[in-house]
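Sanity check

After download, print the first record. It should look like this:
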Amino acid sequence: MKYNLICKQVELSDKSKEKLLKKFDRLEKFFGDDEEIKIVASEQRSKMIVEITINHKGILMRAEARNEDMLTAADICMENLDRQIRKNKTRLENKVKGGGFKDYVPVTDTVVEEEQEIKIIKSKKVESKPMSAEEAVLQMNMLGHDFFIFNDAETDAVCVVYKRKGGNYGLIEIG
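Expected C-alpha coordinates:
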Protein backbone atom coordinates (compact mmCIF):
# COMPACT_ATOMS: atom_id res chain seq x y z
CA MET A 1 0.00 0.00 0.00
CA LYS A 2 1.11 3.52 -0.69
CA TYR A 3 0.59 6.16 1.98
CA ASN A 4 0.39 9.85 1.17
CA LEU A 5 0.86 11.66 4.50
CA ILE A 6 0.13 15.39 4.50
CA CYS A 7 0.86 17.48 7.61
CA LYS A 8 -1.05 20.77 7.88
CA GLN A 9 -0.22 23.29 10.61
CA VAL A 10 1.68 20.61 12.54
CA GLU A 11 5.24 19.30 12.46
CA LEU A 12 5.71 15.58 13.01
CA SER A 13 9.02 13.89 13.63
CA ASP A 14 10.02 10.91 11.52
CA LYS A 15 9.31 8.63 14.47
CA SER A 16 5.81 10.10 14.92
CA LYS A 17 5.10 9.74 11.20
CA GLU A 18 6.23 6.11 11.35
CA LYS A 19 3.97 5.39 14.34
CA LEU A 20 1.04 7.10 12.64
CA LEU A 21 1.48 5.11 9.42
CA LYS A 22 1.85 1.88 11.40
CA LYS A 23 -1.68 2.43 12.77
CA PHE A 24 -3.09 2.00 9.26
CA ASP A 25 -1.24 -1.25 8.44
CA ARG A 26 -4.42 -3.20 9.27
CA LEU A 27 -5.95 -1.87 6.04
CA GLU A 28 -3.71 -4.19 4.03
CA LYS A 29 -6.13 -7.06 4.65
CA PHE A 30 -8.85 -5.14 2.77
CA PHE A 31 -6.87 -3.49 -0.02
CA GLY A 32 -4.11 -4.47 -2.43
CA ASP A 33 -0.54 -3.23 -2.65
CA ASP A 34 -1.34 -0.73 -5.40
CA GLU A 35 -3.92 1.21 -3.34
CA GLU A 36 -3.07 4.77 -2.33
CA ILE A 37 -4.26 6.05 1.02
CA LYS A 38 -4.30 9.77 1.75
CA ILE A 39 -3.76 10.72 5.39
CA VAL A 40 -4.02 14.34 6.52
CA ALA A 41 -2.72 15.24 9.99
CA SER A 42 -3.42 18.70 11.33
CA GLU A 43 -3.86 20.65 14.54
CA GLN A 44 -6.77 22.95 15.30
CA ARG A 45 -7.54 24.57 18.66
CA SER A 46 -5.08 22.30 20.48
CA LYS A 47 -6.76 19.18 19.07
CA MET A 48 -5.07 16.84 16.65
CA ILE A 49 -7.13 15.92 13.58
CA VAL A 50 -6.52 12.83 11.48
CA GLU A 51 -8.38 12.43 8.18
CA ILE A 52 -8.02 9.37 5.98
CA THR A 53 -9.36 8.98 2.45
CA ILE A 54 -9.22 5.81 0.40
CA ASN A 55 -10.22 5.60 -3.25
CA HIS A 56 -10.79 1.89 -3.88
CA LYS A 57 -11.85 1.21 -7.47
CA GLY A 58 -13.76 4.48 -7.61
CA ILE A 59 -15.45 4.08 -4.23
CA LEU A 60 -14.41 6.74 -1.75
CA MET A 61 -14.13 5.90 1.93
CA ARG A 62 -13.37 8.62 4.43
CA ALA A 63 -12.97 8.93 8.18
CA GLU A 64 -12.02 11.83 10.43
CA ALA A 65 -11.23 11.95 14.13
CA ARG A 66 -10.23 14.65 16.63
CA ASN A 67 -8.39 14.12 19.90
CA GLU A 68 -5.70 15.69 22.05
CA ASP A 69 -3.37 12.83 21.04
CA MET A 70 -2.54 12.17 17.37
CA LEU A 71 -2.27 8.39 17.80
CA THR A 72 -5.59 8.17 19.64
CA ALA A 73 -7.23 10.14 16.82
CA ALA A 74 -5.67 7.68 14.35
CA ASP A 75 -7.09 4.74 16.33
CA ILE A 76 -10.58 6.29 16.28
CA CYS A 77 -10.22 6.91 12.55
CA MET A 78 -9.22 3.26 11.99
CA GLU A 79 -12.22 2.03 13.99
CA ASN A 80 -14.55 4.19 11.88
CA LEU A 81 -13.03 2.91 8.63
CA ASP A 82 -13.08 -0.68 9.82
CA ARG A 83 -16.78 -0.35 10.71
CA GLN A 84 -17.56 1.25 7.33
CA ILE A 85 -15.76 -1.48 5.42
CA ARG A 86 -17.35 -4.35 7.36
CA LYS A 87 -20.83 -2.79 7.23
CA ASN A 88 -20.75 -2.31 3.48
CA LYS A 89 -18.54 -5.27 2.51
CA THR A 90 -21.08 -7.33 0.57
CA ARG A 91 -22.71 -4.32 -1.06
CA LEU A 92 -19.28 -3.00 -2.07
CA GLU A 93 -18.24 -6.36 -3.51
CA ASN A 94 -21.42 -6.52 -5.59
CA LYS A 95 -20.99 -2.98 -6.89
CA VAL A 96 -17.29 -3.37 -7.69
CA LYS A 97 -17.75 -6.77 -9.34
CA GLY A 98 -20.74 -5.47 -11.27
CA GLY A 99 -18.73 -2.45 -12.41
CA GLY A 100 -21.15 -0.10 -10.68
CA PHE A 101 -18.53 2.53 -9.83
CA LYS A 102 -15.73 1.82 -12.29
CA ASP A 103 -16.06 5.15 -14.15
CA TYR A 104 -16.71 7.27 -11.05
CA VAL A 105 -14.36 10.25 -10.80
CA PRO A 106 -13.45 11.32 -7.24
CA VAL A 107 -14.21 14.76 -5.85
CA THR A 108 -11.46 17.37 -6.06
CA ASP A 109 -11.19 20.11 -3.44
CA THR A 110 -10.27 23.71 -4.17
CA VAL A 111 -10.01 26.47 -1.59
CA VAL A 112 -11.35 29.84 -2.75
CA GLU A 113 -11.03 33.05 -0.75
CA GLU A 114 -12.81 36.29 -1.59
CA GLU A 115 -12.98 39.62 0.22
CA GLN A 116 -16.72 40.22 -0.01
CA GLU A 117 -19.58 40.00 2.41
CA ILE A 118 -20.29 36.44 1.25
CA LYS A 119 -17.24 34.24 1.58
CA ILE A 120 -16.93 30.96 -0.23
CA ILE A 121 -14.28 29.11 1.70
CA LYS A 122 -14.41 25.78 -0.12
CA SER A 123 -15.43 24.76 -3.59
CA LYS A 124 -15.78 21.28 -5.01
CA LYS A 125 -15.99 20.15 -8.59
CA VAL A 126 -17.83 16.87 -8.95
CA GLU A 127 -17.97 14.72 -12.03
CA SER A 128 -20.42 11.89 -11.73
CA LYS A 129 -21.56 8.92 -13.71
CA PRO A 130 -25.13 7.71 -13.86
CA MET A 131 -26.10 5.56 -10.88
CA SER A 132 -29.14 4.42 -8.95
CA ALA A 133 -30.38 6.13 -5.80
CA GLU A 134 -29.23 3.10 -3.77
CA GLU A 135 -25.68 3.44 -5.13
CA ALA A 136 -25.75 7.17 -4.33
CA VAL A 137 -26.83 6.49 -0.73
CA LEU A 138 -24.00 3.95 -0.38
CA GLN A 139 -21.48 6.47 -1.76
CA MET A 140 -22.84 9.21 0.53
CA ASN A 141 -22.47 6.95 3.58
CA MET A 142 -18.94 5.96 2.57
CA LEU A 143 -17.98 9.64 2.38
CA GLY A 144 -19.71 10.46 5.66
CA HIS A 145 -21.70 13.28 4.08
CA ASP A 146 -25.31 14.33 4.70
CA PHE A 147 -26.16 14.59 0.99
CA PHE A 148 -24.89 13.41 -2.39
CA ILE A 149 -25.52 14.74 -5.89
CA PHE A 150 -25.66 12.27 -8.81
CA ASN A 151 -27.16 11.61 -12.24
CA ASP A 152 -30.03 9.10 -12.23
CA ALA A 153 -29.19 6.11 -14.44
CA GLU A 154 -32.77 5.73 -15.73
CA THR A 155 -33.87 9.34 -16.30
CA ASP A 156 -30.44 11.05 -16.62
CA ALA A 157 -31.81 13.78 -14.32
CA VAL A 158 -29.66 15.46 -11.70
CA CYS A 159 -30.70 14.12 -8.30
CA VAL A 160 -29.79 14.62 -4.65
CA VAL A 161 -30.07 12.03 -1.90
CA TYR A 162 -29.92 13.26 1.69
CA LYS A 163 -30.23 12.02 5.25
CA ARG A 164 -33.43 12.88 7.08
CA LYS A 165 -33.75 13.38 10.84
CA GLY A 166 -35.35 9.99 11.52
CA GLY A 167 -32.43 8.11 9.96
CA ASN A 168 -34.22 7.64 6.64
CA TYR A 169 -33.19 9.11 3.29
CA GLY A 170 -34.76 11.61 0.92
CA LEU A 171 -34.44 12.00 -2.85
CA ILE A 172 -34.73 15.24 -4.80
CA GLU A 173 -35.01 15.08 -8.59
CA ILE A 174 -34.04 18.26 -10.46
CA GLY A 175 -35.50 18.95 -13.87
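If your output differs, re-run the checksum step. Summary of this record's structure: The first helix runs from residue 14 to 23.
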